[in-house]
């Protein structure tokens, strides 16, 4: 497909190179928007709280998670997580657009598909 889109007229992501790291295949692609460093910098080096966007994880997933006690109490409720201003982060409190601070619809569609 890459050979058919030499003029970048079709929505095809172009692979730059690939390599193996610790037995994992890593693939690098063209930069289509903000990179992770710039996104983190834009958020004052605060990571994204995925529960704010996606809600609570499935209970079966939590039961198998070895680090669950760090983030959830014995009832399965999230421990108090605050942002840099001390405000509580609550599950399902943000939509993806406000979490990544981007209005780029293609980027938002891509992220939401990745998170399904």
From TrEMBL:
Record InterPro entries: Kinase-like_dom_sf, Ser_Thr_dual-spec_kinase
GO cellular component: cytoplasm; cytoskeleton; nucleus
Molecular functions (GO terms): ATP binding; protein serine/threonine kinase activity
Recorded coiled-coil stretches: none
Keyword Amino-acid biosynthesis included in the entry's annotation: no
UniProt keyword Kinase, yes or no: yes
Family: Belongs to the protein kinase superfamily. CMGC Ser/Thr protein kinase family. MNB/DYRK subfamily.
Name used for this protein in its record: Dual specificity tyrosine-phosphorylation-regulated kinase 4-like isoform X1
Organism: Paramuricea clavata
Highest classification ranks of the organism: Eukaryota, Metazoa, Cnidaria, Anthozoa, Octocorallia
